[in-house]
Design a protein that fits this description.
The chain is mainly α. The protein is built from eight helices and no strands. Helix 1 packs antiparallel against helix 2, helix 6 packs antiparallel against helix 7 and helix 7 packs antiparallel against helix 8.
Amino acid sequence: MFFVGIALLILGLILAIVGGIWGLVQAFAEGTLWGAAYLLIPFAFVIFYMANWSKKQIRKNFFLILVGLILSLSGSAVLGNHINNKFVVDAANIPDNSNISNNSENTTEKTEAIAAISDPFREGINAATKAAELAQVANTQAQWNEVAITWHQALVLMKEVPESHPQYEAAKNRIDLYRNNREIAKKKSEN
């Protein structure tokens, strides 16, 4: 469809340009004033065609321009649809909910990443805030999946808060809340 769109667009532009130039020649043939008006005044060509509509050659030229414009618009529509389809997300590329489960490979990687974080409580709060903000605008399954993943990250971070941390009790209390929020987001991503 891409090449059809290009062909229609180019053919339409050629017809419209040739028709416009031929109309200019016809306008100058009718008189210098008509030619100058056709060339310099926007939409004067409409008045020229209306005033000279009785002449067969003028009507042919008008239809040539009209067909060229229609072909150009059709080609643009085909190209626009082709380009628009290139940016549609394929459902097969969206990660499923199994990506947010606690399998040993993910846990090991997450534990290593969390070890580098200086304050898992603060990072967990930040992740929870982000998840809550994402949930406010989530509409699609992919967006709800992102919300679930973010809640899962916040949950993992809260589990990593050491007992020696001054906010340990608060972190412990938030674990169930974050788990519940993650499950709600998971369910919404499945609908």
